[in-house]
């Protein structure tokens, strides 16, 4: 499904990282594998450091910290926020919505739309899409988009498929109307028939968490996890990304009348370095135009990885000027979504530690 | 391609890759070993195996891997 928007823009991005850093080398002894195999994996996938939130830190904490920082620095006024979107798979509670909690903790106005959206790794593109749709309304002038996933505590420490790559983080993106003539093209596709490729089996209403769902089971390849844990069919996800994302981007470029040469950066979800390098090769895009270093520095924090890729790699450039960006999110659902837009100059573009 | 068994043994030294007909079914290579193997083959032969070709069928045994390498232009 294609979407086209006019006169909308991102005016600032702030990424918020929990301060606790874990090291792959220190953790690899948890896996039931020879050290040499784990070290080879580190080299190929880019596993190194990752950030995790302790049990006392939830998504709203990271978001409130980031928004207070923007208020204090005069980069955003609380009364300007007409809509607050939270896109995540790791909300604070089932009820109330985390967006309402953030509104309440910050004392934001009551004349506001707070909305939680359950989306995973494509959450940044999906959230932007929703923000742009809201900005079509006369009453909505500024939207705050919060993306974040804190799934490290849902990863089994004995599951080498998942544990070394998962990080926790949040990002705040301010979206507003653009006085210029900007045009944004977006494409979204979904396939719920392949939803089992990325799933947490227990913990919802279908299978509530219980002592039985917490029991670690041998799941093959020397990995052990419980039904309460995140499960990923790595081969299926890898092939899904390599098969679906390149043609989606090709169609988007064609629709927008752009070539690959016109795109300065491909800012993709960050599952691991290897997958992104293969994606770049498939699309014949030089690796340096598709940043792939978020997992090695911070881990994969689902819907927050695209904004982190932006603030970590492009902050100085985007505070000064503008790029033609191609965003691509893909993952749980399954969902694959792309967006072509001009990005910058941004009023703020920064990565900060939560404290 | 003569080096193929040797490259495989660098990843899983405990197995003899010259006798098995199905490395995946015999538990000799898991999905992460495949990624490591692809990265090793890319580097050794100066190629880039396409992401869509990284499927278990192409890594079942020495013959299927050699076929894949030939498709990528590796001749010796």
Mean pLDDT of chain B: 89
Extract low-pLDDT stretches of chain A.
none
By DSSP, the count of extended strands of chain A is: 17
Largest sheet of chain B: none
Number of alpha- plus pi-helical segments of chain A: 9
Number of helices of chain B: 3
What is the CATH architecture annotation of chain B?
Answer: Orthogonal Bundle
Task: Count up the domains of chain B.
Answer: 1
Q: Helical amount among residues of chain B, as a percent range?
A: 40-55%
Principal-axis shape of chain A? globular
Structural class of chain B: mainly alpha
Q: Give the amount of beta strand of chain B, in percent.
A: under 5%
Order of helices and strands of chain B: HHH
The oligomeric state is heterodimer
**CATH topology label of chain B:** Non-ribosomal Peptide Synthetase Peptidyl Carrier Protein, Chain A
CATH 4th-level superfamily of chain B = ACP-like
How would a crystallographer describe the biggest sheet of chain A? Answer: 6 strands, mixed
List keywords for this structure.
heterodimer, A: 355 residues, Peroxisomal Thiolase, Chain A, domain 1, 5-stranded mixed beta sheet, 9 helices, 29% helix, B: 76 residues, 3 helices, globular
In a few lines, what is going on in this structure?
The complex is a heterodimer of chains A (355) and B (76). Chain A has 355 residues and is α/β, with parallel strands linked by helices.
Write the layout of secondary structure elements.
The complex is a heterodimer of chains A (355) and B (76).
Chain A: E1 2-6, E2 8-17, E3 20-23, H1 24-27, H2 35-45, E4 49-52, H3 59-72, E5 83-87, H4 98-106, E6 113-117, H5 123-134, E7 142-150, E8 168-177, E9 183-190, E10 198-199, E11 217-218, E12 224-225, E13 231-232, H6 234-256, E14 265-268, H7 273-282, H8 294-298, H9 305-320, E15 323-331, E16 335-343, E17 348-353
Parallel strand pairs in A: 2-17, 5-6, 5-7, 14-15
Antiparallel strand pairs in A: 1-9, 2-8, 3-4, 7-8, 9-16, 10-13, 11-12, 15-16
Chain B: H1 4-11, H2 31-45, H3 62-71
């Amino acid at each position: 499904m294609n979407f086209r928007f006019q006169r909308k823009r991102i005016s600032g991005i702030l990424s918020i990282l929990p301060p606790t850093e874990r090291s792959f080398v220190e953790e690899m002894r948890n896996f039931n594998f020879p050290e040499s195999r784990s070290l080879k994996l580190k080299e190929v996938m880019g596993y190194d450091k990752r950030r995790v939130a302790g049990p006392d830190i939830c998504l709203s904490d990271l978001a409130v910290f980031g928004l207070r920082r923007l208020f204090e620095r005069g980069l955003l006024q609380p009364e300007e926020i007409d809509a607050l979107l939270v896109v995540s798979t790791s909300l604070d509670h089932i009820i109330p919505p985390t967006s309402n909690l953030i509104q309440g903790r910050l004392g934001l106005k009551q004349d506001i739309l707070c909305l939680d959206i359950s989306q995973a790794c494509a959450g940044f593109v999906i959230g932007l899409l929703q923000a742009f749709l809201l900005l079509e309304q006369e009453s909505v002038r500024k939207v705050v988009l919060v993306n974040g996933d804190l799934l490290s505590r849902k990863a089994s420490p004995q599951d080498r498929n998942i544990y070394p790559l998962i990080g926790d983080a949040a990002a705040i993106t301010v979206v507003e109307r653009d006085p210029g003539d900007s045009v944004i093209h977006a494409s979204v596709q979904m396939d719920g028939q392949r939803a089992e490729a990325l799933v947490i089996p227990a913990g919802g209403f279908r299978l509530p968490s219980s002592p039985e769902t917490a029991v670690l089971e041998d799941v093959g390849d020397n990995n052990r996890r419980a039904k309460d844990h995140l499960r990923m069919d790595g081969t299926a996800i890898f092939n899904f990304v390599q098969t679906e994302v390149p043609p989606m981007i090709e169609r988007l470029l064609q629709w927008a009348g752009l070539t690959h040469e016109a795109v300065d950066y491909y800012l993709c979800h960050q599952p691991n370095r290897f997958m992104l390098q293969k994606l770049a090769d498939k699309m014949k895009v030089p690796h340096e135009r598709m940043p792939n270093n978020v997992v090695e520095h911070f881990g994969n924090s689902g819907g927050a990885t695209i904004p982190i890729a932006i603030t970590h790699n492009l902050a100085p450039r985007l505070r000064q000027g503008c790029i033609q960006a191609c965003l691509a999110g893909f993952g749980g659902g399954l969902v694959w979504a792309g967006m072509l837009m001009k990005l910058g100059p941004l009023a703020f573009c920064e990565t900060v530690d939560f404290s | 391609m003569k080096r193929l068994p040797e490259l495989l043994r660098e990843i899983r030294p405990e197995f003899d890759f010259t006798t098995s007909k199905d490395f995946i079914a015999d538990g000799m290579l898991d999905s992460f070993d495949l990624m490591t193997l692809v990265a090793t083959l890319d580097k050794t032969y100066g190629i880039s195996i396409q992401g869509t070709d990284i499927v278990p069928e192409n890594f079942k045994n020495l013959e299927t891997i050699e076929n894949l390498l030939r498709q990528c232009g590796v001749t010796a």
